[in-house]
Amino acid sequence: MKFSLNLKSESSPKWVEAVMADFPSFLQDHASCEKKASAMSMSLVSKYPDRPLIIKPLIDTAIEELEHFRDVVLWMEKLGVSLAHDMQQDIYVNRLISNVRKGRDEGLIDRLCLGSIIECRGAERFRMVEEALTEPEIKRFYKILWASEAKHGNVFVELALHYFDEKLIYQRLNELLEIEAEILNGLEFRAALH
Questions:
Q1: CATH superfamily placement of domain 13-185
Q2: What's the predicted TM-score (pTM) here?
Q3: What's the CA gap between 189 and 122, in Å, rounded?
Q4: C or N: which end of the chain has fewer Cβ atoms within 10 Å?
Q5: Distances in Å between the alpha carbon of 70 and those of 30, 83, 99, 108, 112?
Q6: What are the strands, taking DSSP E only, across the chain?
């Protein structure tokens, strides 16, 4: 059974140019995104304690995202970049979340599908950052990160398939992937993950 998914659009090279032009701001945003990803996994644990098959994998994912947050902060310290006090709202994530359906099962399906999509987009973009970087140590860091994000994308689909029909999950994933591509293509290019 296939757990991975194919994004419906590719990120523009102009996006990675914006990142490289202001890498300190990108690091600040990246740290914020890792922290939010950890919190999102834990919020699913809190909201769906009656779904025992998702609990441990989500806790593991939350811990791994928090470790990524720590690692990004360590890179920021090395490069003399402080954590940001106020981050811009993540328009990309907010627009995706606005498509979460009402209803307990529908909400869980959509949140898991969106978790997968966001992680897969992160993997694509971290790969682009890794390819654009020249310093070997930070390049290696981003290579490890994009592999981890790709794995998380698979985890969320696998969790959804524990409780819901495969056809239903992949139909909803495809709908949300179309929405994600439209959202992404409407965003300005800035030194941020999304």
A1: Ferritin, core subunit, four-helix bundle (1.20.1260.10)
A2: 0.94
A3: 15
A4: N
A5: 11, 11, 30, 28, 24
A6: none
